[in-house]
Specification:
three-stranded mixed sheet; single chain; hypothetical protein PF0899 fold; about 300 residues; globular; eight-stranded mixed sheet; alpha+beta
């Protein structure tokens, strides 16, 4: 018996085919954020004004003049430097319709909170990075004069030079070592440097020192942390190459203000919460708000290392 040539398939009858929707949302790419962990965090209580100040006393030079017998020397006058900052507010929100909330298969409000939460964290990390960029001690790879002349990748010698500079300046370490934030591309070059005989991977640490977020290893008394959010200047190096900025810190290089209850807050306004501004309960909003200020406390306590990357 011959087969029926008029077989009905999925192409000819598409309305009968349900579309399967995977309710598990795909993970979004989120870079790792590191710049907050090495700052001096200064609390700012409520109702204490809007400006915060850090105070640092100025050192006296060495005294090489002996006392004259029977003569009282001139006294010294204390001097200090004050660094002031005023926190600024940042925020965003999205508006969701009642139809979207009611009909969407995905939990839209939760998804919006997740996306905006990452934007808030990325914004705060970038603000801190930008406060450091160009405001600390410059170190151009291979000792060239400026960023436009930078022509070499990150190497062990750059870490060794940075550590030497901080030690000569008398910059205290953070927990016994200096801290470095660099791009993964710079870390790749550093770990491939055959001269980096002192490199120690994190899985070879013998002490019980707590790990830093993003830490990948140690070299010449500096702990290396990776973050894709370091500054990259497109075409700023020799021959139009991109330059990558790594940051090496000692103690109290930069500060962040910890405002009581205002550092980061998420908001979810339900349908109808706007009163007469939303008379038909058609809109819901999700947003965030935070106050932030980052300030370099002493340029000599941090080094910005400019390199290329392979």
């Amino acid at each position: 018996m011959a087969l029926n040539p008029n077989t009905t398939g999925t192409v000819g009858f598409p309305n009968a085919i349900a579309i399967y929707y995977d309710k598990k949302l795909l993970e979004r790419l989120e870079i790792e954020l590191r710049f907050d962990q090495f700052a001096d965090k200064k609390p700012m209580p409520k109702r204490m004004g809007n400006e915060i100040k850090w105070t640092r006393y100025t050192n006296f030079a060495a005294n090489t003049t002996p006392l004259t017998e029977g003569t009282t020397p001139n006294g010294l006058t204390l001097q200090s430097v004050q660094i002031s900052a005023i926190p600024l507010q940042y925020g965003d929100f999205v508006t969701l319709s009642d139809f979207l909330i009611a009909e969407a298969i995905d939990p839209v409000i939760e998804g919006a909170q997740d996306v905006l939460g990452y934007r808030a964290a990325l914004s705060a990390d970038t603000l801190t990075r930008d406060a450091l960029d160009g405001n600390v001690t410059d170190q151009f790879a291979n000792g060239v004069a400026n960023e436009a002349a930078v022509a070499t990748n990150m190497a062990a010698s750059e870490i060794r030079t940075g550590v030497k500079t901080l030690r000569i300046a008398g910059v205290p370490t953070i927990g016994g070592e200096y801290q470095v934030i660099m791009h993964p591309a710079q870390s790749f070059d550093l770990q491939g440097d055959t001269a980096a005989g002192g490199w120690l991977d994190i899985n070879k640490y013998t002490s019980a020192t707590p790990m830093l977020r993003g830490e990948v290893g140690k070299l010449y008394g500096a702990r290396i942390v990776e973050s894709p959010n370091v500054k990259v200047n497109a075409g700023a190096g020799s021959g139009g190459a991109d330059t990558y900025h790594a940051y090496m810190f000692g103690k109290s290089a930069y500060g962040l203000v910890d405002l009581a209850g205002q550092n980061m807050k998420m908001y979810a306004k339900q349908l109808g919460s706007a009163g007469t501004e939303d008379p038909l309960d058609q809109r819901s909003t999700v947003g965030y708000k935070f106050s932030h200020i980052a300030k370099v406390l002493e340029a000599a306590r941090a080094i910005q290392i400019y390199t290329l990357a392979s």
